[in-house]
Protein 1
Amino acid sequence: MTKRFTHLHVHTEYSLLDGASKIPELVAYAKELGMDSLAITDHGAMYGAVEFYQECTKAGIKPIIGCEVYLAKGSHLEKNNRGMYHLILLAENDTGYHNLMKIVSIGQLEGFYYKPRVDKDVLRTYHEGVICLSACVAGEVPQMILQDNLEGARRCIQEYIDIFGKENYFLEIQDHDLDEEHKVSAELKQLAQEFGLGLVATNDLHYVQQKDAAAQDILLCIQTTSTVDEPDRMRFNNDSYYLKSYDEMEALFGDCPEALSNTNKIADRCNVKMEFGHLLLPEFPVPEGFDAVSYLRHLCEEALPKRYEVVDEKVRKRLDFELDIINTMGYACYFLIVWDFINYCRSHDIPVGPGRGSAAGSIVAYLLRITNIEPLRYHLLFERFLNPERVSMPDIDTDFCYVKRNQVLDYVVRRYGQERVAQIITFGTLQARAAVRDVGKALGMSYGEVDEIAKLIPRELGITLEKALNGSKDFRQAYDSRPEVKKLIDLAQSVEGLPRNAGTHAAGVIIAPHNMKNYVPLQQGSEGGVITQYDKNKVEELGLLKMDFLGLRTLTVIGDCIRFIRETTGEEVDIDDIQLADEATCAMLRRGETACVFQLESAGITKLVMDLAPESFEDLIPLVALYRPGPLGTGMAEDFIAGRHGQRTAKVLHPLMEPILKDTYGVILYQEQVMQITSALAGFTLGQADILRRAMGKKKAKELDSMRQSFIDGAKKLHDIPEELSDQIFSLLQHFAGYGFNKSHSVAYALVAYETAYLKAHWRPQFYAAFLNSIIGDADKVSWYINVCRNDNVKILPPDVNESGHNFTVHQNASIRFGLAGIKNTGDAAVDAIISARNEGGPFKSLTDFCCRVNMRVVNKRVIENMIKCGAMDSFGARRSQLLS
């Protein structure tokens, strides 16, 4: 007999703070044990389903997609403490997978009460294609047995048979050396014979190998905020909850061979096929007489004379080229969807950014006002954004005023229907420092002791405990010399990287062609609204349309500043039509007056601005690309500045590279330049050049070796460039590709920087007031920037209960009045109550009058004392000490 067994009850790292099985390690160990199939059945959610499917497929193991759901005792809609049961559901086929997603979504969206619960009515509705196992001792049938209610167990079994069918319902037996399991298994064997049902043996797997039990125990402590030494805390009875081999399972269930073989019969029946790379774009509702392709062209043609004074052949050729690629690749609806909500923003006074990322390289995006950057003028490449060789979906990321971002989301929901729109989940993971702190707490170590160790871990992006041990002498010394620290770090390493909690992604939004439940499982977001259970990478791989709606504080500042200018001077400022070579703006930057200017505030970049000495907006474009560790550390920034001032130009290896590197003085600064050089010298299409650029950036050795030869051959054939020189050029490109920056992104962010600088140069009080409002909740920042205003000769008037608004306001004499919301420990409700009382009865005449008229339940003693102390009641004519008394 072939030694074959399939684990069908498996908890991965996505049984949050309960499962310690990292999916790649779990699948690799199953492969090592010779297993050809494996299930995933996390608690109440399907977070790991796509990753698990992909890892299993890569390893040549059949993935079985399932979930251990929570079954309510009664209706899942009732919020009561009657408790719940466990139940294992496995998707037999694609219908079962889609039904499983719906069951899990209903549990999360409708039945959530401490846990995501479903009921038998839900199971009846979505039973098709689903195989059910009776679960561990927490299942309904086992619980009836443990209560010696065999008639109740029989009733339940019959009910499950009626829901799923006899061939789709199995009685599950386990053995983790629990008395309850032994009692349940004995009865289940009898009941299986009585009802003619299959038995199935499972191990309630929560970690990969037996040695991982301690890590999983720590996770339980973190979840329940308890310490390992607490006697009555939640814990597993032993270390047997791991991925056991066939021999280990046979040793436990040798007396019941059918329970072992049934695992494979179930596995053979389960054949879910996930599809990746197919576009699942929603249809855009176009006017009658158009389809998406013709309507997109219509909008572009309509915009041409508005965007270009002269529509020359270059513009026309670029437009036709882009539309051809967009339509061939099936992205017409995508552009229309983005155009639609951007158009909504522009017509509803919601500030929108000029563009972000590679989308700024598209003339179609420019014509539709998705971006505000003319790509031909700045030599931006459409192929950096979209090309036929690119397999991943393009990204049109959009910046909105962060205060009004939700208005855009609400519009999208209204436009496409609530059932088709969701935000994206994100997982908070146990990173190096957090892992040490959480594990230390679970071990019962003192806060001070743990804090001391955690602070030895360098504050670096992507730091791991392994890197910290190799890179920090003090951290290594503590690990090597103190046994308790070694234990702490070893345990922290075993849980490092595991997901700790689920939240809502800051920007990601999905719009589906039909009901979202048909494509992904859903749940409630941490900040309200519906979110996907698959993260941003997985939803994209499934072909769903992901948009990034990014809230950018600077756009709120720009919008508020323009409003202040209108209110105080009567002038109308169109930020899209400002002078891009304004001397006052550039002179201010050359003096290093960069406080509050987007992206240019830090001491390092301020020095770079002054060294660069900008004379127009275009001079700011390289700054975003230059001010990064790579260019600064390799001397690229110095070479660029020297070239800018005519002192020297970096050596160019071939004349064909000169026009491409002219604007950057011989320095390869942008990713687009890598693409252009590859195309000019070796005849690569810009699409192929983009693939090469990506391979260089990610250091994909195999791809690069074949592409290097193609580059050498192409350069020889086209321009008779010697192999030695072309190899040297390729190496140079490879070196700079690691540092190269997306020029489209540089232009977009440089424009936002220039816009803030322009407003500051011409309307300082209005600009500073708008900026202060954007940070009003941070007392330390407010204090810092008030000093910036004073140093800039902008007068800040103190808060006043009769003069101040909620936020900072600009007075006609070009001074700024402090906002009441900026006073510590005041709160929005108290400020609203004060302003409401003032609006109703006029200015407050005295402290007594104030106290009589405001709502004292909201404006309490502490609020009033803080207002007196900061001078907000000085206008009453009494001393602050008198008012306090």
Protein 2
Amino acid sequence: MNPNNRGPEDHDHDAAERRDGSPRGARGDAGGARGDAGGGGPQRPAVARTVQLVAGEYLLTVNPVDGSEIEPCPPGEHPGRPGRRGPEERAAQRRAALPPEPVGPAAPGPQPLMERGGERERLVRLLSRGRSVRVTGPSGSGRSALLDAVAADCAELAPDGIVRLSGYRRTPTDVLYELFAAVYDAPLHRPDRSELLTAVHEIGAVVVLDDIEFGGSALDEILAATPECAFLISATPDVAAPSPDSHLEEVFLPGLSRATCVELLEEAVQRPLTEDETSWAGDLWFESEGLPLRFVQAGALLRQRDALRAGAEAFEEHGVFAEQPYEPHDVPHEAPREAHFGEDGRDAPLPSLGQAAAPAPLLASRLSEAARETLRFALALGGACPHQAHLPALAGETHADAAVGELLGCGLLSPVGAHYRLAAGVAAQLEAADAYGEDTEARAQSAAQHYAWWAGHPSVAPERVAAEADAILAAMSVLVAQGEAGRQSAVVLLARTAAPAFAAAGRWGAWERALRHGQEAARVAGEVAEEAYFHHELGVLALCTGNLDRARAELEASIGLRGALSDRRGTVAGRRALALVADRGGFAPGAGSTAAGEETPGGGTDLSASPPGGVRAVLARLQADEAATVVTPRRTGSPGLRRTVLGGARRNKVAAGAGALLAVVLGTVVTLGAMSGDDGGPSDRVRSGQTADEDDGNNGLIADETPTQGATSRPQKPGGTTAPGPSVSPGTGGGDAPSGEPSNSGEPSESKPGETDDPEPTRPPSSSRPPSPKPPTKPPSSSPSTTSPTPTGTSTSEAPGEPGDGTSNSASGPASSDPATASDLAWGATDATPLT
């Protein structure tokens, strides 16, 4: 059964199929669509609904699959000046701003407005003069009823009529955008800040703003932006007072007098009060300070008492039923009989003063099971009552939609905007009762699953989803605060389904809250892909609202997460949005960056790389709500580490510059070593470019002893000392840095086996030269290649005992303590060649 459309097919089992052929499913679709959840037949896949709207200077495409896409709005796509709504459209807007009419036989009629004539006339007089007024009174003092009466009296005062808005959980920006949408006919158009202020500046209306939650400078901002509007605002005493310069009239709403409260009680029970009831009403007036809500609830207690007494009298009158105990259908079976009829079973006593001061548990115990289950769901959702069309699916009872009328008649619900919520003090009273504060998380999860199915149905309009925003967000908040990973998946699914609808309906405050709840739930549940989606949407939202720093940080986090998952489509969407942020922010992405999704020099896209500093570093910055920066350690000559805060393109440029500087230093060191002379060494050594003397007695060759691999000799100064040679700081080249060995010709000379003219073995070392100690074996290099190309005319020594560098003078002193291979020396010389 569809509660919004009860036709013949609700009672015809042969018409259980929908017109489109799909089976009729679960109840509770407030959007007029019969769902497929709960049906036994096959289900068709849901169609992803994309909505395209103009947000300021951007064209926003809300895509619930890969993430919203944003681009500059083409000139032909930007809407012109919006037109104003006509009287009929304004009347439809006012009806939509009211809560739905309750259904069922227990639906109450309108409550009379008593003892408020003076305040009513004063408010109408002030509004007719163009003055704005704030009505301040405690919860339950009848502020909403007074505002309704005054709005009816001021319907023809302003050219744009009456505009009803709700301030419950609204920011000043939300109020201004809702005022714009109520007066102007601009579908799928959300103007930017300047356009919004220009549009609302020309509105001339009486704005009824109920349940406002802000004051001070925030309220001054709204009043300054709408100089042609007269505001009728209601607030509780705990809301910040308006500033002295706001010129806002204050009207305090006191409680009713004792005589008026007795009259209100008689109106509720439709009969004169007895002496005991009048005395009981006086005690209640003193305790409640004359709040009308307390006497509405007290009237419900007396009506229930009258129903119980009437049932007992009817039971005694029909003696045929005398042997069977009487229990009304609205009284729970588990309740003791004495609680309703008294000890003698013939009369129901008056409630005590404590029960009258906190009547919610007693009132609920005499209601139907569907009404009590509705109270449990409202308590689980933070006080927000689901729409009456959702109650059959949530409570599991066909006629549960009539429970709203029962609760309104008892004063347990009160209207807030376009929906209902628990009246003041009811939530605390129900939490004290053991039967209503249990299993709140399970009911919140059940509501989240139901709303996720309903909001994702193709026939449910985004405006219908936005009307249930309070209940949807309350379900998310309860489950996210619980922190259990098992319940977070329901939050993620609900946020993925409801957030695009909030964006399309213009409820961007609810959109942001849903995205943040979904992002936190996805992080706890470990759903990386969903977390990336929520970061992307938050970045797009920040870009639309002009917060470029936040947009950049959110998009970088999304790109990093999607790059780790190799999500190419999502990464491309994020890179496009990030490029637009860079264009609006006046900065350019750094060249050669390897952030995830950036184009590489080869023309490809690196999807596996992380953003600068890592994804988790970006997420940590987002949680701290700071600018996107990356902390990079830099090693200096002094002990310890110094941290340099860089970000984005600057980090890439500094890294490239550091690499170039390191290459210059290394090349300079090797070049200086190669250019240094050996004035103190012997001159009978074979050098590069020379030939051996054939007349020499030793076959024309005088060769040094072959240096062992890794040994390094230094030029000998006169006097037998060894001159220190140039060295390179350790840590470069993958191992210990080599010391360059200069030659007389200014370039290193090395030889390989078979390159000398004399094929005879090398001359053994002289006995006057002590042999060099064998240095420790160099560990294998971690680089793939152990050799490097050498300059032309040089050769490398490949093994100990083979002919090596002809210019080495290992016998002139002990071997160096810094072992280095010839390949290391050749690597340094090769790098230094272009620089010299």
Protein 3
Amino acid sequence: MPTPFPLRTRLASSILLACSSLLISAPAAWAAETAAEQNEQLSFDIPAQSLDEALSAFGIASGAQVLYDAGLTQGLSSQPVSGRMDRQQALQQLLAGTGLSYRFTGARTVTLQAAASSAAGEALEFSPILITGEKIERDLQQTTSSVAVVDAARIEQARIQNLPDAFRMMANVRDADWADSGYIIRGINSEGVGGPAGRPLATVYVDGVAQTMQGARRGALGMWDVEQVEVLRGPQSTTSGRNALAGAIRIESKDPTYHWESAARGTAGSLDTHGYAAMVSGPLVEDKLAFRLAAERSHADGGIDYPFFEGMPRLDERKDDDYWQVRGKLLFQPHGEDGVRVLLSHSKSYDSPAYNDVDGPSGGVDYFDREWGHQSSALFTEARSTINYNTGLEITQPLGEGLALTSLTTHVKTETSRPSVDLGTTGEFDEKEIAQELRLNWDNTQYSAVAGVYLNTGEEKGRRDQQRPWETYQRRDRSKNEVDNYALFGEMNWHLTEQWTLISGMRYDYEKQDYKADNRRVDNASGTPISSLNSGGDTSYDAWLPKLGVQYQIDKQQNVGFVVQRAYRGGGTATNYVTSEVYDYDAEYAWNYELSYRSLWADGKVRLNANLFHLDWDDQQVNVPQIPGDFTSDVVINAGKSHVDGFEIELGYLPLEGLDTFASLGLAKTEFDEFYFVQNGVPLDLAGEAFPQAPEWTAALGADYQHHSGWFVGGDLKYTGSTTSRSLLEGAEKDRMPVYTLLNLRTGYAGDQWRVTLWANNVTDEEYYLYRYDEPGSQFASVGRERVVGTTLDLTY
């Protein structure tokens, strides 16, 4: 019998449906006003020039904001526009002969797109979405990979502040259950099932720079001045390598412009929420050298009380959510848009997220009293924060006839402190990676291909010093892991006919690890070591990762595809902090079988995409604590076999001018087929169980409407199905987390160069669990954030 939706879920759904009903009915009453606004006569005097510059001049003269993919305007020039006319007439004249059309999405907001068959200004259809994560640039509608995309317009409309915020728009994607973990893609934690296994299963890229594990948790993840977020669900091993079994996440910030533009933002809200941001971009040398600077800062109270830890030196870092980032980019094109392109980016960020751990009834409180410390020592209550440095240098040299050579050099450095709130424990993680990729892209009417070589060298250092009051010695643990990774890769889409495309790819991936550990116990009185264990080992792994598939173009608006590919993550060496011994774990491998469908309907007003998949997984690495409830006792165990089955269906609909709606539905049914281990002397057999943290069902629904007067309203709702708590791997009885639904609403007014937004997140104040350990005598959990209400002011110049 199906489980009925809880009251809060039904209430949230009713609110969003009511808003949707209002959005659909309201525009008819305002049709006459829209016509008056569009016919407003303005003065224009814009000479013929590069199209980017002309569009900037149009924006100043008309008070409109023009949004477009930079690739659309490359190498194009405008027609001169002079005299009095309305905005549509001016834009039609400006774009004449460019092959581009436009669509007003609000009173003063317009989007450019490739010209449709209908007259300019009358087309109401989805603009192409360029996907770059597969290293062969293509429109979303031509991909076979399941890609969830949040673009700049959606980021602004939905007030998306950070990467986890973007997940609320996506099926089969969610944040993990606590601050020191990853993200869940198709039921798989990006750091490994069960907890952080030490290396990613889905890498986060920021402006092409692959993030370290700590950087992916607490790094440059803010959404200010970001162009697009892509989440590629499912293995991406042919082009991304060893750390892409679950998928890949790519954040692309906006590039410098050859026209001047700037923006600023201020935010204030409940739970001491406040923040500000600014951006400026413009030319340093006309049409040759441009820059962009962006900065943001935010603060919020985490909403958890610590009644027994007040006054401790690092408590604020545990309680509060603090973030800042400064980013700079330089774009150099010495021979114009058709010549060599050099893009240099650098950022520095700081992230200290608030923890969401709470005590339960065994501590004398309810979980949603939101208190911590009744059952835990300050010594084991850490407050982690990270400083992250990203640098990327991308050089692209066109070679003619669809050929282009790209060099991408990246450097990332992450410094994470890990003290306890009372400083009884101190330590840090220091990570750095240098990578070089050289790839050749070939694109013509018959082939779309990429081939390349990849080199990466990295180092991870860990330190923890801890003084336990009942011990007469100090614990001093050190570790160092050096990893070298080399790969050759290639992928080709061969267009056999107008309808059939053959997809093939291969990657050879090799990695070598050199691991060392030093675990000491030092006497407090004399300062001499009581015991010392030095250990380590070298390991190496390699794999061939093939990909083969086919795509069939049913007609101009529909295609289907089927792809099979292999993925893997290398094994490794780690320290068992309970026994102070070093151990090895094996590599894991998976085969993924995926069917895709892409379509546009109703003259481009409806976009319907779907993927159906099956993943077979061998020797899956699972993080298991030896001591229940103590994450520092985790060891990596290879499960025998497991699998994941599911699908994603995503729908976009543009029912009328100014209204953008979306819906998505995802299923990810996970299961251990073979998984037997011994924990603390007790044998456990988890065959037949679902992966922890993996909801079978997720769904999202949303709408944003921009009226010509400047008023706008929108909302989104995310449903997350029941999950198994990670406590299953901690010796506890299986505990299923209840379903939950989160509703976010916003409304406001946009002027010519300003925008005020009133917003509310978790409108119904849903109380929900992300993790729970619910055994008699020991009950604690991680809970979701309560309702937050605020306002944001945006300015553009």
Protein 4
Amino acid sequence: MLRHQLTLAFRSFMKFKKIFAINLFGLAIGLTTVVLIMMWVKDELGISRNHEKIDRIYAVMTNHDNTGGIVTIGITPGDMAEAMKAELSQVELAAGTSSFINGVAFENGDTKMTGAGLYVDQTYFDIFSVDFLEGNPSQIMTGINSLAISETMATKLFGSPKEAIGKSVKWQVFDFHNDVEVTGVYKDFGSMEVDKPDYFLSFSYFKQMLGEGVHWGNFNASTYLLLRRDTDVAAFNEQIAGFIKAKDERSNVSAFVQPYGDTYLYGTYEDGKVAGGRISYVKLFSAIAIFILIIACINFMNLTTARSMSRLKEIGVKKSMGASRGGLFGQFMVESLLLTFMALVLAILATFILQPFFNQVTSKTLSMSFQSELILLLLGIWLLTSFLAGIYPAVYLSRFKPVEVMKSNIKGSFGELLARKGLVVFQFAISLLLIIGISVIGKQMTFIQNQNLGYNQSQLLQINASGVNPNQLDSFLAEIKKSPGVENASSLSHPLVGLRSATIGLTWEGKNPEEQVKFENVSVNMGLIETMGFELVDGRAFSTEFGEEESKIILNEAAVRTIGFDDPVGQIVNLWGDDKEVVGVIKDFNFESLKETVKPAFLKYDPGFAQKIMIRINPQNQQETIAGIEALFVKQTAQPMDYSFMDEDYQSLYASEQRVSKLAKYFGVMAIFLSCLGLFGLAAFTAEKRKKEIGVRKVMGASMMSVLTLVSKDFIALILVSILIAIPIAWYFANNWLQTYAYQTDLSWWIFAGSGVLLIVISLITVGYQAYKAASTNPVESLRSE
């Protein structure tokens, strides 16, 4: 029986080759898009979750109740882990970590390299799954001078992981240096981890470096907990809310825990609570995948019902010969299953071909490997698509009565007509939502790129200064300034992209002692303001013309507003117990994403605390200039230069939005294309049903334009309905998305009007082909069947 139905299905495909090809092509495109999106979603959902004990690992988050509102960060005091393990019975294990100082320079003989890593204690490896190739995992961080390095780092420094074990390595950052022993080599972290440290150093040494800087008012570490299995997390959060305040009565910071596996997807907070994050993109693209699958299925329905007029006599003969409705239903479902299976095979082949391009767009390393999980997913997609695509045509075609079929007395009901038109409205409403969404995202990204950040990003080079001897920093900067193509150079304590070093240690006369305000603390060298292009709105910059610049401070406008100074220059503030004179005010500059308002910040003169070297270069002969700087750097440090451009670093804050924008464009095009196929199908169906009517009209003298209007007007009405439905929904979601930015573009009327006009034009082109085809048909051919 199945073999017979398959034979009938193939005969049907060959009889209606054009409809078969369009159906197969449309379903294949839709399924390819769905498979790619599902691969991306599966990867996103798996990030940071590949640890053996992931269901019990929690990150400690802190809520800082500042004057501008609650700020939530994953940074805690350095003693937090130790105290929580000692005082809370629900905590099985607790680990403190810090990446406070990145870019540590390692040296093994003549071989030198820098890396980004973490300071951890032994408990870290008991909580997280780290795959060690060499060394005893239970004794990696037993000493303060222990070092664990990645497979790549071990190969670069020692030739192989095995050769690295037990070897001594020198490391240095700023004024800190030490000899450490390699006690472990671990496998490089894969794409499923957000942080991919090149090394692990002892957390105890980190605390020793900070000395008195480790206290309950200084937030410089991350704390991770392994909670016992029977822990009530909600009750635990209530218990630890005042944990920090109990240690420091002046503190305005409360704590809570968040599942570590959720920190990647749920990284946005409002009023101290989780409010979303990247999970919104996962939901968005999952919805797009579902919509595209539905659109592809709607196309199948429309095209199948459009060709039904050509199959009526076939159906009537089969029913007259005794075929049951169930038998015909089964035949049409077999056709759907077979066609969808063929489309799925094409989709899998297309996915393999498109994988490199898709990985480039998403910045991932996705690959399709036929494991049981993927096979089940593809099987589910096949069956679901077959059911969605085939159920309506199967019911529609199998219900016809043989007498009506043989008399050609088939009339579509109002309900069928409404359903078919409703499907087209749905298709184009989704397409218009995507068009508007793409336009809004693109407009906001352009706005961000053209926003005045308070300094000049252009041609601003940023170099990791970890390998530069602090005692030779000034002479090195002097050499760089003499290099051809260099306009200026200076140094500062940390990158100006993102919050890096906030403090509550700034006070002033009249400050409420109960109120704690965080200021971004930036240590700078002479010439930093000039090199960055900061705009002075009052006072002066740091200069060698004046003495004792260590006792001076420069505020940004946000800091002046927070403090309440009317005439800030000459005022005295106190930083960590030392009085500082305000000598200048710089215009607010964005050191975070434009999703955030500018926070209070100050610059202090401290050239010894230099992590980054900033160099302003001339745009002409750029490569030669960089090569000259690199030669000086290698001569100074004997290691390769790690550099980036500030505009690139700034754009990295919006990497997610930019990738989403690109993906949305591609998927939007797919949705529009598939919707047009659906419209093509409905136009073909209508032209087929009105074939005789059009023939009679032409015999009676109807012009080509009147026939075109006859066929097209109903479809334009459907598109207008789609626009009326989609625009309010699009405005709502676009407005909500823009509200996540402190600095946002406006929702211009032309975005909605232009998107609607574009949709109408695309629809007219699609329908116009079928209308022209119907209008140009010889009326004799249309009426011959009579």
